[in-house]
Amino acid sequence: MHPVSSAWLIQAVLLIISILLRIFVARYLIIIFIMTPGELYDYGETALLASVPKAREIKKNMICPVHRRKILFDYDYTDAGTNVYITRYCCLEHAQRVAQAFKDAELFDNIHIENQQ
Predict the structure, then answer these.
(1) Using the 8-state DSSP alphabet, how is residue 106 labeled?
(2) CA within 20 to 30 Å of 76's CA: 47, 49, 69, 108, which one?
(3) pLDDT surpasses 60 at 2
């Protein structure tokens, strides 16, 4: 048996990486160039790419007037659309204000305020 040379191993790894990169790039090029902007926004991943930075900006600018705190939120997408979950908040009133701001900005399809214990 011949020992495997490191040059051959490096070439094999680079070939696998280039194939995976081509698949990844091709997938997103198809998504970007074949879909209309409306369809692109309906696609869960790209809708979140557009919505989450705007939601973070809203969150950053909305501080509870009573407690001087901000909310924390998580997000995902399902068949029902994009979802945001307000997970941590100082008071329910502030969480509802932030949820209303998300709703007014039309960032997510579903907005949930999780119960705190």
Answers:
(1) T
(2) 69
(3) no
Q: Give CA angle at 18 (12, 22), nearest 5°.
A: 150
Could you tell me the two tokens for 10? 């490096």
Q: Give DSSP secondary structure letters for 10-60.
A: HHHHHHHHHHHHHHHHHHHHHHHHHS-HHHHHHSHHHHHHHHHHHHHHHHH
Q: Does 61 score more than 90 pLDDT?
A: yes
- DSSP-based three-state secondary structure for 6: helix
Residue 73, burial from CB neighbour count under 10 angstroms (0-12, 13-18, 19+): buried
Question: Is residue 92 predicted with pLDDT exceeding 90?
Answer: yes
